[in-house]
Design goal:
binds oxa(dethia)-CoA; alpha/beta; Peroxisomal Thiolase, Chain A, domain 1; 11 helices; 23% strand; 331 residues
Length: 331
Protein backbone atom coordinates (compact mmCIF):
# COMPACT_ATOMS: atom_id res chain seq x y z
CA UNK A 1 0.00 0.00 0.00
CA UNK A 2 1.24 3.47 -0.88
CA UNK A 3 2.18 5.36 2.28
CA UNK A 4 0.19 8.60 2.74
CA UNK A 5 2.04 11.90 2.75
CA UNK A 6 1.17 13.96 5.86
CA UNK A 7 -0.65 17.24 5.26
CA UNK A 8 -0.11 18.56 8.80
CA UNK A 9 2.14 17.91 11.76
CA UNK A 10 1.91 18.65 15.45
CA UNK A 11 4.59 21.31 15.96
CA UNK A 12 4.29 21.24 19.77
CA UNK A 13 1.99 20.20 22.57
CA UNK A 14 1.29 21.78 25.95
CA UNK A 15 -0.64 21.12 29.13
CA UNK A 16 -2.16 22.75 32.17
CA UNK A 17 -3.18 20.88 35.29
CA UNK A 18 -4.80 22.56 38.29
CA UNK A 19 -2.64 22.33 41.47
CA UNK A 20 -5.25 20.73 43.71
CA UNK A 21 -4.68 16.94 43.97
CA UNK A 22 -7.58 14.84 45.27
CA UNK A 23 -6.66 11.25 46.10
CA UNK A 24 -8.95 8.24 46.32
CA UNK A 25 -8.49 8.33 50.10
CA UNK A 26 -9.67 11.96 50.09
CA UNK A 27 -12.85 10.85 48.27
CA UNK A 28 -13.32 7.95 50.70
CA UNK A 29 -13.58 10.51 53.50
CA UNK A 30 -16.64 12.14 51.91
CA UNK A 31 -18.43 9.27 50.14
CA UNK A 32 -18.94 5.53 50.39
CA UNK A 33 -15.94 4.40 48.32
CA UNK A 34 -12.39 3.18 48.82
CA UNK A 35 -8.96 3.44 47.24
CA UNK A 36 -9.14 -0.32 46.78
CA UNK A 37 -12.38 -0.17 44.73
CA UNK A 38 -11.37 2.80 42.58
CA UNK A 39 -7.81 1.69 41.83
CA UNK A 40 -8.65 -1.96 41.16
CA UNK A 41 -11.64 -1.18 38.87
CA UNK A 42 -10.16 1.79 37.06
CA UNK A 43 -6.42 2.26 37.73
CA UNK A 44 -7.08 5.80 38.99
CA UNK A 45 -5.31 6.90 42.18
CA UNK A 46 -5.76 10.66 42.15
CA UNK A 47 -7.12 13.48 40.00
CA UNK A 48 -6.84 17.27 39.82
CA UNK A 49 -9.81 19.43 40.73
CA UNK A 50 -9.87 23.06 39.60
CA UNK A 51 -11.01 25.69 42.12
CA UNK A 52 -14.14 27.81 41.74
CA UNK A 53 -13.37 30.62 39.35
CA UNK A 54 -10.94 28.60 37.24
CA UNK A 55 -12.90 27.42 34.24
CA UNK A 56 -12.35 25.70 30.91
CA UNK A 57 -11.17 28.83 29.07
CA UNK A 58 -8.56 29.68 31.70
CA UNK A 59 -7.18 26.13 31.85
CA UNK A 60 -7.23 25.87 28.06
CA UNK A 61 -5.36 29.16 27.75
CA UNK A 62 -2.71 27.81 30.13
CA UNK A 63 -2.19 24.70 27.97
CA UNK A 64 -2.25 26.75 24.76
CA UNK A 65 0.41 29.16 26.04
CA UNK A 66 2.63 26.20 26.90
CA UNK A 67 2.20 24.73 23.39
CA UNK A 68 2.69 28.08 21.61
CA UNK A 69 5.86 28.78 23.60
CA UNK A 70 7.33 25.39 22.65
CA UNK A 71 6.34 25.90 18.99
CA UNK A 72 7.73 29.44 18.91
CA UNK A 73 4.36 30.81 17.82
CA UNK A 74 3.03 34.23 18.86
CA UNK A 75 -0.70 34.63 19.66
CA UNK A 76 -1.21 36.92 16.65
CA UNK A 77 0.04 34.19 14.29
CA UNK A 78 -2.77 31.75 15.11
CA UNK A 79 -5.21 31.47 12.18
CA UNK A 80 -7.72 29.08 13.74
CA UNK A 81 -8.43 28.18 17.37
CA UNK A 82 -10.44 24.99 17.77
CA UNK A 83 -11.44 24.27 21.36
CA UNK A 84 -12.95 20.98 22.45
CA UNK A 85 -14.85 20.79 25.70
CA UNK A 86 -17.77 19.03 27.31
CA UNK A 87 -17.77 21.70 30.01
CA UNK A 88 -18.17 25.11 28.36
CA UNK A 89 -17.76 27.98 30.81
CA UNK A 90 -21.03 29.48 29.59
CA UNK A 91 -23.49 28.76 26.79
CA UNK A 92 -22.79 31.99 24.94
CA UNK A 93 -20.19 32.91 23.73
CA UNK A 94 -18.16 29.81 22.98
CA UNK A 95 -15.35 28.86 25.35
CA UNK A 96 -13.05 29.16 22.32
CA UNK A 97 -13.88 32.87 22.08
CA UNK A 98 -13.26 33.32 25.81
CA UNK A 99 -9.90 31.52 25.45
CA UNK A 100 -9.10 33.63 22.38
CA UNK A 101 -9.59 36.79 24.44
CA UNK A 102 -7.35 35.46 27.23
CA UNK A 103 -4.65 34.47 24.75
CA UNK A 104 -4.79 37.52 22.50
CA UNK A 105 -5.15 35.36 19.36
CA UNK A 106 -7.01 38.22 17.72
CA UNK A 107 -6.44 37.09 14.11
CA UNK A 108 -7.92 33.62 14.67
CA UNK A 109 -11.33 32.22 13.86
CA UNK A 110 -12.33 30.57 17.14
CA UNK A 111 -15.06 28.02 17.84
CA UNK A 112 -15.94 25.08 20.06
CA UNK A 113 -16.18 21.41 19.19
CA UNK A 114 -18.35 19.16 21.33
CA UNK A 115 -17.26 15.57 20.84
CA UNK A 116 -16.72 14.58 24.49
CA UNK A 117 -13.56 12.52 25.04
CA UNK A 118 -12.78 12.30 21.31
CA UNK A 119 -12.68 16.10 20.98
CA UNK A 120 -8.92 16.42 20.57
CA UNK A 121 -8.88 14.00 17.64
CA UNK A 122 -11.86 15.74 16.06
CA UNK A 123 -10.09 19.09 16.53
CA UNK A 124 -6.84 17.94 14.94
CA UNK A 125 -8.82 16.53 12.01
CA UNK A 126 -10.61 19.87 11.52
CA UNK A 127 -7.29 21.70 11.72
CA UNK A 128 -5.97 19.37 9.01
CA UNK A 129 -8.88 20.24 6.71
CA UNK A 130 -8.57 23.99 7.30
CA UNK A 131 -4.82 24.05 6.69
CA UNK A 132 -5.16 21.69 3.70
CA UNK A 133 -7.59 24.18 2.14
CA UNK A 134 -4.85 26.78 2.38
CA UNK A 135 -6.79 29.00 4.79
CA UNK A 136 -3.93 29.49 7.21
CA UNK A 137 -0.54 28.39 8.54
CA UNK A 138 -1.11 27.92 12.27
CA UNK A 139 -3.92 26.02 13.98
CA UNK A 140 -4.27 25.81 17.73
CA UNK A 141 -6.23 22.83 19.05
CA UNK A 142 -7.15 23.20 22.72
CA UNK A 143 -8.90 20.51 24.78
CA UNK A 144 -10.02 21.66 28.19
CA UNK A 145 -12.36 20.05 30.68
CA UNK A 146 -13.64 20.96 34.10
CA UNK A 147 -15.36 17.61 34.62
CA UNK A 148 -15.74 18.30 38.36
CA UNK A 149 -18.35 20.94 37.45
CA UNK A 150 -20.72 18.51 35.68
CA UNK A 151 -20.43 15.23 37.60
CA UNK A 152 -22.92 14.31 40.29
CA UNK A 153 -20.84 14.14 43.47
CA UNK A 154 -23.51 11.89 45.00
CA UNK A 155 -23.08 9.30 42.22
CA UNK A 156 -20.02 7.35 43.33
CA UNK A 157 -20.11 5.16 40.20
CA UNK A 158 -19.33 8.20 38.04
CA UNK A 159 -17.75 11.05 40.00
CA UNK A 160 -14.65 9.11 41.08
CA UNK A 161 -13.64 8.56 37.44
CA UNK A 162 -13.15 12.13 36.25
CA UNK A 163 -10.65 14.95 36.70
CA UNK A 164 -9.95 18.47 35.45
CA UNK A 165 -7.20 19.64 33.10
CA UNK A 166 -6.27 20.90 29.66
CA UNK A 167 -3.99 19.96 26.79
CA UNK A 168 -3.19 21.74 23.53
CA UNK A 169 -1.35 21.34 20.25
CA UNK A 170 -0.02 23.72 17.63
CA UNK A 171 -0.76 22.18 14.24
CA UNK A 172 1.10 23.37 11.14
CA UNK A 173 1.36 22.28 7.50
CA UNK A 174 3.77 19.37 7.03
CA UNK A 175 5.32 21.21 4.07
CA UNK A 176 6.30 18.07 2.20
CA UNK A 177 8.02 16.43 5.19
CA UNK A 178 7.38 12.77 6.01
CA UNK A 179 6.62 13.72 9.62
CA UNK A 180 3.06 14.45 10.67
CA UNK A 181 -0.46 13.04 10.74
CA UNK A 182 -0.44 9.79 8.75
CA UNK A 183 -4.06 8.75 9.14
CA UNK A 184 -7.29 9.61 10.85
CA UNK A 185 -10.37 7.48 11.40
CA UNK A 186 -13.24 9.24 13.20
CA UNK A 187 -16.74 7.99 13.86
CA UNK A 188 -19.86 8.73 15.91
CA UNK A 189 -23.17 7.04 16.66
CA UNK A 190 -25.92 9.30 17.96
CA UNK A 191 -28.20 6.32 18.58
CA UNK A 192 -26.08 5.55 21.63
CA UNK A 193 -26.24 9.10 23.01
CA UNK A 194 -28.02 8.14 26.20
CA UNK A 195 -25.22 5.88 27.43
CA UNK A 196 -23.29 8.93 28.60
CA UNK A 197 -25.21 12.20 28.74
CA UNK A 198 -26.69 15.10 30.64
CA UNK A 199 -30.49 14.76 30.51
CA UNK A 200 -31.48 18.44 30.73
CA UNK A 201 -30.41 22.03 31.19
CA UNK A 202 -30.06 22.80 27.47
CA UNK A 203 -32.52 24.06 24.86
CA UNK A 204 -34.82 21.00 24.79
CA UNK A 205 -35.39 20.96 28.55
CA UNK A 206 -34.16 24.30 29.89
CA UNK A 207 -32.84 24.66 33.38
CA UNK A 208 -35.49 25.06 36.06
CA UNK A 209 -35.94 24.11 39.68
CA UNK A 210 -37.12 20.59 38.74
CA UNK A 211 -34.04 19.99 36.64
CA UNK A 212 -31.84 21.10 39.52
CA UNK A 213 -33.76 19.03 42.05
CA UNK A 214 -33.54 15.86 39.93
CA UNK A 215 -29.90 16.69 39.08
CA UNK A 216 -30.81 16.25 35.44
CA UNK A 217 -28.16 18.80 34.46
CA UNK A 218 -25.38 16.47 35.61
CA UNK A 219 -23.65 13.54 33.91
CA UNK A 220 -25.41 10.17 33.77
CA UNK A 221 -23.57 7.11 32.56
CA UNK A 222 -24.30 3.45 31.92
CA UNK A 223 -20.79 2.36 32.83
CA UNK A 224 -20.82 -1.25 31.65
CA UNK A 225 -22.30 -0.46 28.22
CA UNK A 226 -19.87 2.41 27.76
CA UNK A 227 -17.03 0.06 28.70
CA UNK A 228 -18.00 -2.56 26.10
CA UNK A 229 -18.48 -0.01 23.33
CA UNK A 230 -15.23 1.74 24.23
CA UNK A 231 -13.08 -1.34 23.78
CA UNK A 232 -14.72 -2.45 20.55
CA UNK A 233 -14.76 0.99 18.94
CA UNK A 234 -11.26 2.09 19.89
CA UNK A 235 -9.79 -1.23 18.79
CA UNK A 236 -11.55 -1.07 15.41
CA UNK A 237 -10.55 2.57 14.94
CA UNK A 238 -6.94 1.74 15.78
CA UNK A 239 -6.98 -1.02 13.14
CA UNK A 240 -8.35 1.40 10.52
CA UNK A 241 -5.81 4.10 11.41
CA UNK A 242 -2.91 1.65 11.14
CA UNK A 243 -4.18 0.31 7.81
CA UNK A 244 -4.71 3.78 6.36
CA UNK A 245 -1.20 4.76 7.44
CA UNK A 246 0.22 1.67 5.74
CA UNK A 247 1.80 0.41 8.98
CA UNK A 248 1.23 -2.42 11.44
CA UNK A 249 1.07 -2.66 15.22
CA UNK A 250 4.75 -3.69 15.22
CA UNK A 251 5.70 -0.30 13.77
CA UNK A 252 4.09 1.60 16.65
CA UNK A 253 6.61 3.04 19.11
CA UNK A 254 3.98 4.36 21.51
CA UNK A 255 0.22 4.09 21.78
CA UNK A 256 -1.38 7.06 23.51
CA UNK A 257 -4.99 6.13 24.25
CA UNK A 258 -7.73 8.12 25.93
CA UNK A 259 -7.24 7.69 29.66
CA UNK A 260 -10.60 6.46 30.98
CA UNK A 261 -9.95 3.12 32.64
CA UNK A 262 -6.84 0.93 32.75
CA UNK A 263 -8.96 -2.12 31.91
CA UNK A 264 -10.29 -0.40 28.75
CA UNK A 265 -6.73 0.58 27.80
CA UNK A 266 -5.38 -2.95 28.36
CA UNK A 267 -8.18 -4.58 26.39
CA UNK A 268 -7.80 -2.11 23.49
CA UNK A 269 -4.02 -2.54 23.37
CA UNK A 270 -4.38 -6.31 23.43
CA UNK A 271 -6.84 -6.24 20.56
CA UNK A 272 -4.62 -3.86 18.59
CA UNK A 273 -1.62 -6.16 19.20
CA UNK A 274 0.42 -3.58 21.10
CA UNK A 275 2.19 -4.69 24.31
CA UNK A 276 1.51 -2.59 27.42
CA UNK A 277 5.21 -1.53 27.58
CA UNK A 278 4.41 0.53 24.48
CA UNK A 279 1.24 2.09 25.89
CA UNK A 280 1.31 5.44 27.69
CA UNK A 281 -0.67 5.59 30.92
CA UNK A 282 -1.10 8.57 33.24
CA UNK A 283 -4.69 8.07 34.37
CA UNK A 284 -3.42 6.98 37.78
CA UNK A 285 -2.51 10.66 38.36
CA UNK A 286 -5.30 12.49 36.52
CA UNK A 287 -8.33 10.23 36.09
CA UNK A 288 -10.45 10.74 32.99
CA UNK A 289 -10.01 14.33 31.76
CA UNK A 290 -12.26 13.72 28.74
CA UNK A 291 -10.82 15.32 25.59
CA UNK A 292 -7.83 16.76 27.49
CA UNK A 293 -6.49 13.31 28.25
CA UNK A 294 -4.86 12.58 24.86
CA UNK A 295 -2.99 15.89 24.42
CA UNK A 296 -1.84 15.89 28.07
CA UNK A 297 -0.59 12.32 27.60
CA UNK A 298 1.19 13.23 24.33
CA UNK A 299 2.83 16.18 26.04
CA UNK A 300 4.04 14.10 28.99
CA UNK A 301 5.20 11.25 26.73
CA UNK A 302 7.35 13.64 24.73
CA UNK A 303 8.71 15.30 27.87
CA UNK A 304 9.67 11.86 29.20
CA UNK A 305 11.52 11.07 25.96
CA UNK A 306 9.11 8.26 25.04
CA UNK A 307 8.37 9.92 21.70
CA UNK A 308 10.55 12.19 19.63
CA UNK A 309 11.21 13.14 16.02
CA UNK A 310 10.46 10.15 13.78
CA UNK A 311 8.55 8.08 16.40
CA UNK A 312 5.41 6.32 15.23
CA UNK A 313 2.56 7.22 17.56
CA UNK A 314 -0.96 5.80 17.61
CA UNK A 315 -3.71 7.66 19.48
CA UNK A 316 -7.24 6.44 20.11
CA UNK A 317 -10.18 7.97 21.93
CA UNK A 318 -13.74 7.23 22.87
CA UNK A 319 -16.54 9.17 24.55
CA UNK A 320 -20.10 10.42 24.86
CA UNK A 321 -22.05 10.85 21.66
CA UNK A 322 -20.99 8.20 21.18
CA UNK A 323 -17.84 9.39 19.44
CA UNK A 324 -14.59 7.59 18.79
CA UNK A 325 -11.55 7.54 16.59
CA UNK A 326 -7.85 6.88 16.14
CA UNK A 327 -4.93 8.65 14.49
CA UNK A 328 -1.41 7.61 13.54
CA UNK A 329 1.47 10.09 13.50
CA UNK A 330 5.09 10.09 12.52
CA UNK A 331 6.17 12.50 15.27
O1 LIG B 1 -14.52 8.43 28.52
C1 LIG B 1 -15.45 7.41 28.67
C2 LIG B 1 -16.04 7.57 30.04
N1 LIG B 1 -16.64 6.44 30.63
C3 LIG B 1 -15.97 5.36 31.08
O2 LIG B 1 -14.80 5.20 30.92
C4 LIG B 1 -16.77 4.35 31.86
C5 LIG B 1 -16.54 2.93 31.44
N2 LIG B 1 -17.03 2.04 32.47
C6 LIG B 1 -16.25 1.69 33.53
O3 LIG B 1 -15.10 2.11 33.61
C7 LIG B 1 -16.82 0.77 34.56
O4 LIG B 1 -18.08 0.31 34.14
C8 LIG B 1 -16.94 1.44 35.96
C9 LIG B 1 -15.55 1.66 36.56
C10 LIG B 1 -17.67 2.77 35.86
C11 LIG B 1 -17.71 0.55 36.92
O5 LIG B 1 -17.10 -0.72 37.02
P1 LIG B 1 -18.01 -2.04 37.03
O6 LIG B 1 -17.07 -3.14 37.25
O7 LIG B 1 -18.81 -2.00 35.76
O8 LIG B 1 -18.88 -1.83 38.32
P2 LIG B 1 -20.47 -1.68 38.48
O9 LIG B 1 -20.92 -0.35 37.98
O10 LIG B 1 -21.13 -2.87 37.90
O11 LIG B 1 -20.60 -1.72 40.05
C12 LIG B 1 -20.19 -2.84 40.80
C13 LIG B 1 -20.43 -2.56 42.27
C14 LIG B 1 -21.84 -2.07 42.58
O12 LIG B 1 -22.21 -2.63 43.82
P3 LIG B 1 -23.20 -3.91 43.87
O13 LIG B 1 -24.47 -3.45 43.20
O14 LIG B 1 -22.50 -4.99 43.10
O15 LIG B 1 -23.33 -4.16 45.33
C15 LIG B 1 -21.68 -0.59 42.73
O16 LIG B 1 -22.65 -0.01 43.58
O17 LIG B 1 -19.55 -1.51 42.72
C16 LIG B 1 -20.32 -0.50 43.37
N3 LIG B 1 -19.67 0.79 43.15
C17 LIG B 1 -18.74 1.29 43.99
N4 LIG B 1 -18.23 0.85 45.14
C18 LIG B 1 -17.29 1.60 45.73
C19 LIG B 1 -19.84 1.64 42.10
N5 LIG B 1 -19.04 2.70 42.27
C20 LIG B 1 -18.35 2.51 43.41
C21 LIG B 1 -17.37 3.27 44.10
N6 LIG B 1 -16.87 2.76 45.25
N7 LIG B 1 -16.91 4.44 43.63
Amino acid sequence: MKKPKPIVRIAATGRYLPDNVVTNDDLAKVMDTSDEWISSRTGIRERRIAPDGEGAAAMGAGAAMDAMKKAGVEPGEVDILILSTATPDRWLPSTACDAQALLGCSNAVAFDVMAACSGFLYGVSMAEGYLAAGRGEVALVVSTEKMSSIVDWDDRGTCVLFGDGAGAAVVRPANGQDRGLLSSHLRSDGNLGNLLYRPAGGAAIPMDEGVLERKDHLVRMHGRDVFKNAVRSMAEAADHALQQAGITADDVDLMVPHQANIRIIEATAKYAGIPMEKVFVNLDRYGNMSSASVPVALDEAEEQGLIGPGSTVLTAAFGGGLTWGAMAFRW
